[in-house]
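FORM 7B: Structural annotation worksheet

SECTION A. Query
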Amino acid sequence: MKQLYLIGGTMGVGKTTVCQILKKKLGYSVFLDGDWCWDADPFQVTEETKAMVMENICYLLNQFLHCSAYEHIIFCWVMDQQRILDDICSRLDMENCKVTTVSLICTPQALIKRLQKDIDSGLRASDAIENSVRRLPLYHRLNTIKIDISALTPEQTATEIKALTMES
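SECTION B. Predicted structure
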């Protein structure tokens, strides 16, 4: 049976780093970051580009689900609305697949500290803090497992996610 991990969280919470570590911990894994499916310049959010990114994500996830080389498919993206998670799941061939949905959450203070490092390094624009902190409460409304990463390292977070699937 395949294991699909859908890992969401606001910008800067550490999704990509955690998923890269999780990929190595699990073995026979493949990782897709939703941001890679529409990395463009200029970045444009329109109805057309939103539809395109969903098609891209679901196509790739289905390809990974059908590939016998992978036991674990790890996907991360902002996914701050239940309808996004539901839409993705409705487009996937989930036969012989267990799905674990996780939201990485943290305190606003922890998020600001993480984002400020990225801003200081030139990796993010200064408006990232306001945009990201504003989304934090949305994750508490989702039908997902919440992991508060405020005091966790990415390694500890990946270990917690791995343990979720070992329990069941």
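SECTION C. Observations
The two ends are 13 Å apart (CA to CA). The mean pLDDT is 94.

SECTION D. Sign-off
Analyst initials: ____
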